[in-house]
Amino acid sequence: MDGIGDVAVGVKRGSDELLSGSIYNSPSSGLSSVSDTTSNGSDSKKLRVEDRVGDAPPSRVLHIRKLPNDVSETEIIALGLPFGKVTNILTLKGKNQAFLELSTEEAAMTMVNYYSAVTPHVRSVPVYIQYSNHKELKTDNSNQSGGTLASGANSSNGGGMASSPVLRIIIDNMFYPVTLDVLQQIFSKFGTVMKIITFTKNNQFQALLQYNDPAGAQQAKVALDGQNIYNACCTLRIDYSKLVNLNVKYNNDKSRDYTRPELPAGDGQPPALDPSVVAALGKDSGSLLGKIPGALSPLSAAAAAAAAAGRVALSGHSGTSGVLLVSNLNEEMVTPHSLFTLFGVYGDVQRVKILFNKKDSALIQMADMNQAQLAMSHLNGQKMFSKIIRVTMSKHHTVQLPRDGLDDQGLTKDFTNSPLHRFKKPGSKNFQNIFPPSATLHLSNIPQDITEEDLKILFSNSGGTVKAFKFFQDHKMALIQMTTIEEAIQCLIDLHNYNMGNNHHLKVSFLQINHLKQFERS
């Protein structure tokens, strides 16, 4: 599960009593040491508060500074929710600081990498996140709330049962369309979404959404109730449903059972979409991260979920360029086209330039800053051609083409008018099909005469091992699982837009983690 499971919340007294205990503060060092000692001396702990941004090695414990006064634990936890399970938190309110522990170091690294380009805001105040020197956060468990985000999470506020895994969702002020897939993308950050049914009642768009357990429903209700999906509109009103299980008969644009992708679409209904595809909004609509100057593309599930909780906003970057610097490339194997294909999963790549004097580095110009940020957050640290690539924002505003008559050995390529752009067409179903690389790939546009064995051989020839395979949608689509993420990346680079014959070009994309787990069970 990509959302949070249990959140171990630190002792409430820790935020105040830590500061009333033995404290010393050295301005010259920039560090503070805080100790908490109870009356019997049996429950002491010391934490070093890293007030100065240092060079601490990666850790699953993150230090968050410059928090606004009276910030709630829910607001702090929401910063980490999109990146993985939050396992512990300790707030130092008198210091306007907090420690947040994630379940894995990888999740913490993803969070730090993302927020290095997208400054997080809490209550419109920019906050700063860095690795802590602590490898784990130890707090007194005696007063923990058993995984709830806040007191009151067990109250239904709507006649339903707090123990139910089913939520009833009403959308107020619905100025922009909210699709079933938009709901799945937002709510899946808090647990595994099993089923969704959407309908209109009393002229209001409503939905029933079922998690795999009540804990996910509780987390989602606490974090999302009353929040806006888009800027100043589409407000979520969430109650617990009296139902404990939803009966979904069809997979289409009105209902979806993510555990049964083989369900029919139903008479007269549009066919079910790829489960990892989310319907797009118009270019001028507000996004889950609020209004940003310039044309917007929908954002990733990670950023969207955090923003839906009302906690994160994009910082004001100078300029509107979307140029990335990619380093540590395998210079013997990388090509402009391979970079175009991989980075094209997260936006429309305009130009690629492999640097002439440093061929393990390249500049990639995306259609806008938004797409560049998404590509960076998902691809930084991934393996491409056996090397871990590094992706950062470039100081350049555009990628320059070589002067006329100058041979740059094919290191620069202009893809501005490429027909392979996934997001150029307004309303394209490819919008928000932007999930982190995974070992399982979604295949579409498969000719009827292509067999499972044909596809297994094709993908094995890219140098990987096929672990599992499954057709669905009358063999027009399929899921294929490779042994590693690196193998899946290689297959996507090699086989996206591969000509299968009769003008059928294979479409390849990464699969969302929730569906991967269901695929593995099947």
**What is the oligomer described by this structure?**
single chain
User: What value does the average pLDDT take?
Assistant: 73
Tally the helices: 11
Question: Which structural category do the helix and sheet elements fall into?
Answer: alpha+beta
Shape: globular
Protein name: Polypyrimidine tract-binding protein 2-like isoform X1
GO molecular function: RNA binding
InterPro entries: HnRNP-L/PTB, Nucleotide-bd_a/b_plait_sf, PTBP1-like_RRM2, RBD_domain_sf, RRM_dom
Pfam family, one: RRM_5
How would you characterize this protein structure?
The model is unreliable at 1-53, 141-159 and 268-320 (pLDDT under 50). A six-stranded antiparallel β-sheet has the order 14-15-11-13-12-16. A five-stranded mixed β-sheet has the order 1-6-7-5-10. It is built from eleven helices and 27 strands. The longest helix is centred in the first third of the chain and has 13 residues, at 105-117. The chain starts with 7 loop residues before the first strand and ends with a helix. Strand 2 and strand 3 (31-36) form a beta hairpin. The protein has helices at residues 14-20, 73-80, 105-117, 180-187, 214-224, 301-308, 336-343, 369-379, 452-460, 485-495, 513-521, and strands spanning 8-9, 23-26, 31-36, 45-49, 61-65, 86-92, 97-102, 121-122, 125-126, 128-131, 166-172, 193-201, 204-211, 228-230, 233-240, 255-257, 323-327, 349-354, 362-366, 383-384, 387-388, 390-393, 412-414, 440-444, 466-472, 477-482, 507-510. Among the domains are: 61-131, Alpha-Beta Plaits (2-Layer Sandwich); 166-257, Alpha-Beta Plaits, CATH 3.30.70; 323-401 and 408-414, Alpha-Beta Plaits; 435-520, RRM (RNA recognition motif) domain (Alpha-Beta Plaits, 2-Layer Sandwich), CATH 3.30.70.330. The protein is α+β, with helices and mostly antiparallel strands.
